[in-house]
Structures are given as C-alpha cells and as structure tokens.
Model the fold of this input.
Amino acid sequence: MSAVSAVDFRLDFDRRRRTGLDEAVFAEGKSTDQLSRILQAARTRGSALLLTRLSAEKYRALGEWWSQLDYCEISRTAFFDRATDSPRTPSVAIVSGGTSDISVAREAERTLLFSGIGTANFLDVGVAGLWRLTACLESISRYPVVIAVAGMDAALPTVLAGLVSSVIIAVPTSVGYGVAAGGETALRAVLASCAPGLVTVNIDNGYGAACAALRSLGNRVTSHLKVAEV
Done:
C-alpha cells in the first residue's frame, strides 16, 4: 500500500457526538479499493457507516463485503453494521411529485432509517393531478417534518408550504425536459418560492434533506444504535 493511499481518507467517528448526525461516505468517485479500506477501518473501530451514491456495479465489485452490507439499488445506499429490520414509528413524511423522483425520495428515507427514524411515504402525488395531493393532505399534515421531492418546475414544495404547518424541506430533482436543465429550474423555483419558511437543499440531495430533517427533529437517538466510543 502506498504512503498516499494509506492516508487518503479520515473517517469522522466523533460526528454523532458533536452534531447528532452519523458519519456517511459518499461512494461516487471513490475506488473499490478505497471503499474496502474504509469499510475495514469502520469494522476495526466497531462503527456503523452509511454509504451514499454507491452504484450497483461498484457494490458488486466489493465482493467480500456483500454479506455485511444492506444495499438498496434504488437509492444507491448501503448500511454497514446496522440492523434496519425492526419497525420504526414514522416521524417524517416524504412526499414525491412523480415516480421518476423515487430514487431521491428513497435516499432520504434510507438516511433517516439509518438514524432510527421511520417515514410515511406519499409517492406520485405531484401537482399535475392536484387531487392526488389533496386526498392525502390531512395525513401529511400530521408529521412535524415533511420532505418534498419534485422535479420539472418543483411546484410541490411550495404548494405544501402553503397548506400545512410542518417544516417543509424541498428537494429539487434533475427530472424534466429541456429547460428543466438537469434540475436548475426546479432549484431556482423553490429558492424563489413565495411560501415563507421553505427550506431547500441541493439538486437530488435526498441525503441532505434527511439530515436537515434530523436536525429539525433534534435527533439524538442513540439507545438502539451501536456507537463507537471515542
């Protein structure tokens, strides 16, 4: 192992104590060797990890780690050393505009699940068929935090912010034709929203939206988690 590769990552094992948020590894742009060494470091430390933007191809290339990773191809996320099979009472609503937005919505859902937070999911309820949203509006309004995921003109977060008192976190997505410009139009639309108090994260950033939700909830849930001592 070269001297450079030996120090090309530094895991933040103290992050939960400082911020209430777990360490996460952005897998896109990292080699299989780097990811393997990151996982080995986490295993040595006895720490759980969330991996985001882990492609199916890269996941399969990890080989020996398959049995130790809870992988979701839709969201491109993986959990290392954390059980997620126990039921979670929903604390956050995730609302998506269309089926094409589900991968981003799922990333937010999985990030919350990794931190022990359950979600109620309301999918394909975009404003092009407003009746779909109004039919579940009463249920959505019961949650203190709502993550609204939408592409095209991203009208969904604005509509929700004008109808419910929950904290609304907008996630513009890269879904859309032509002038949608890979999510730029959606991002500008939610930033320019006339609904006061609307929180916005970057394009396709389901992970960031989930972290904002955790901060909004004041999440410090650690009793059921395996947290490494510092």
Q: What stands out?
A: Residues 1-5, 220-230 have pLDDT under 50 and may be disordered. The two ends are 27 Å apart (CA to CA). Strands lie at 24-26, 49-52, 69-72, 77-80, 90-96, 118-122, 145-150, 167-172, 199-200. Residues 3-80 form one domain.
